[in-house]
Specification:
Layout: H1 2-27, H2 41-52, H3 61-129, H4 133-160, H5 162-189, H6 194-210, H7 259-311, H8 314-333, H9 336-362, H10 372-382, H11 387-403
Helix pairs in contact: 3-4, 3-5, 3-6, 3-8, 4-7, 5-6, 5-9, 7-8, 7-9, 7-11
Length: 415
C-alpha cells in the first residue's frame, strides 16, 4: 500500500514537471515577436536627418512675403489713382463754375458797353439837333466821357474775349470728364499699374497747361496769335513708342491686326490731313482775321466818337458811336472768339487722332498695340461713322491716289 502511494506521488511529480516544461516551451517563442518592429525606426530617422539638411531659403515663407508686398503696392497704386480721380472731379467743378461766370461776363459787359455807347450817341444826336450854351456843353461833355469809358471797356473786353474764355472752360470740362471716365474704367477692369498712374498724372497736368484758370501773370491763352494753331491738351510722351518700325511695316500679324487694316488706317490719316485738318486751319485763320479786325475797329470807332465829342463835332461822334455799338454787338454778341476756340478744339481733335493712329502703326510689335478690331471701332466712332463706312472711305481714298484724282469726302461726319 505504501509502495503504491509512493509510486503515485512520483508519477504526479513527473507529470507536473512535464507540464511546467511544456508550458514554458509554449510561452517562450511569443516574446521575440516584440523586437521584430524595432529595426524599421532607422530609415525614418535618416529621412528626418535629410530633411533637416534642406537650406532655409528654399522654404515657402518668402513667397508669401513677396505676394504680400505686391498686394501692398497694388493697393498703393489704386489709392494714388483714386487721389488723381478726386483731383479730376474737382477740376471739372472748377472749370464748370468758371465757365458759367465768364459766360455771364460776356453777356453783362456786352449789354453794358452797348448801353453806354448808345446813350452817348443819343446825347451827340441831341447836341446836333439843338441846344445852346450850358446845355450843349453838358451834352458834349457827357457824351465824350461816356465814349471814353466805352473805349476803355472795349479794349479790356477785346483783350480777354469772355466768349472764348467760356468756350475754353466748356472744352476743359468735357476733356476732364473724359479723363475721369478713363480712370474709372481702369479701376473697374483691372488692377492699375505704375504706368497708369503716371499717364493719368501727365494728362491732368497737360490739361491744366492747355486750359489755364488764371487770367493774369501771362497764364492766359493768347487770344490773337500770329496764325491759327490747334489746341494741344495731351502729353507728348503719351504717344511715343520706344520700339518703332522705321520701314512702316509690321514684322508679323496678330492681335486683331492685318495688312488690310493697317492700309485702311493709313488712308484715314491721309484723309484727315488733306481734308479735315486743312479745312479747319483755313476756317480758323479766317475767323482769327475777322476777330482781329473787329477787336481793333470797336475801340477805334468809340475813340473817334470821344474825340468828336470833345472837338465839337457831334455828327461825327454820333455816327462813330453807332458804328462802335454795331461792331461790338457783332463781335461779342456773335461770339466770334467762341467760334475761334471751337475751331482750335476741333483742330486739336483731328491732330490727336492722327498722332494716335500713327504712333499705333509705328509700334512694330503688334502684341503691344491695342487690339486692332477695338482700335478700328474707336476710330469709326470718333469720326461718326460705322465700320463699313470707315472702310469705304479708306477704299475711296486709295482709289483716288491710284487714279490721280482728289477725294472730296471728309473723314469726320460729326463736325
Amino acid at each position: 500500500m505504501a509502495s503504491l502511494q509512493a509510486s503515485s506521488c512520483l508519477m504526479f511529480s513527473s507529470c507536473s514537471s512535464r507540464r511546467r516544461v511544456i508550458t514554458g516551451a509554449i510561452s517562450v517563442p511569443k516574446l521575440p515577436k516584440i523586437s521584430l518592429f524595432t529595426p524599421k525606426i532607422t530609415p525614418s530617422r535618416e529621412l528626418l536627418g535629410l530633411m533637416n539638411q534642406i537650406p532655409i531659403e528654399k522654404i515657402v515663407v518668402p513667397s508669401t512675403t513677396i505676394h504680400q508686398h505686391d498686394r501692398n503696392e497694388e493697393c498703393n497704386r489704386t489709392a494714388q489713382l483714386y487721389a488723381i480721380l478726386e483731383a479730376v472731379c474737382d477740376r471739372v467743378e472748377m472749370h464748370n463754375n468758371l465757365g458759367e461766370q465768364r459766360n455771364n461776363w460776356n453777356t453783362l459787359l456786352l449789354n453794358s458797353i452797348n448801353m453806354i455807347t448808345l446813350t452817348a450817341t443819343a446825347m451827340s444826336g441831341f447836341a446836333v439837333t439843338g441846344g445852346e450854351g450850358a446845355s450843349l456843353l453838358a451834352l458834349k461833355l457827357s457824351s465824350a466821357l461816356l465814349f471814353s469809358a466805352a473805349t476803355g471797356m472795349m479794349v479790356m473786353v477785346n483783350k480777354i474775349q469772355p466768349s472764348q474764355l467760356a468756350e475754353e472752360q466748356r472744352n476743359a470740362v468735357k476733356l476732364f470728364k473724359q479723363l475721369q471716365r478713363e480712370i474709372e474704367t481702369v479701376i473697374a477692369l483691372r488692377v492699375p499699374c505704375e504706368e497708369d498712374v503716371e499717364e493719368a498724372m501727365e494728362k491732368v497736368l497737360a490739361l491744366d497747361k492747355a486750359y489755364p484758370l488764371p487770367l493774369l501773370g501771362g497764364k492766359m491763352i493768347e487770344k490773337f496769335p500770329k496764325s491759327f494753331e490747334p489746341a494741344v491738351w495731351w502729353p507728348s510722351r503719351h504717344l511715343q513708342r520706344k520700339n518703332t518700325n522705321k520701314n512702316g511695316e509690321t514684322t508679323r500679324q496678330g492681335n486683331g491686326w492685318n495688312v488690310e487694316m493697317e492700309m485702311e488706317m493709313r488712308e484715314i490719316v491721309k484723309v484727315l490731313k488733306t481734308k479735315d485738318t486743312e479745312d479747319y486751319e483755313r476756317l480758323g485763320n479766317l475767323v482769327l482775321k475777322i476777330n482781329k479786325f473787329l477787336a481793333i475797329s470797336g475801340p477805334l470807332l468809340a475813340g473817334i466818337a470821344a474825340v468828336g465829342s470833345f472837338s465839337g463835332s457831334p455828327s461825327l461822334a454820333a455816327a462813330a458811336g453807332a458804328l462802335a455799338a454795331v461792331v461790338n454787338s457783332f463781335e461779342h454778341g456773335g461770339q466770334v472768339g467762341m467760334v475761334f476756340e471751337m475751331y482750335r478744339n476741333c483742330g486739336g481733335f483731328f491732330k490727336l487722332l492722327e498722332e494716335s493712329i500713327e504712333s499705333t502703326l509705328d509700334q512694330s510689335e503688334v502684341d503691344k498695340r491695342e487690339n486692332g478690331e477695338m482700335f478700328e471701332m474707336k476710330v469709326a466712332l470718333k469720326l461718326g461713322r460705322s465700320l463699313s463706312e470707315l472702310r469705304d472711305l479708306a477704299r475711296k481714298s486709295s482709289y483716288s491716289s491710284i487714279e490721280g484724282t482728289q477725294n472730296e469726302e471728309f473723314a469726320s461726319k460729326l463736325f
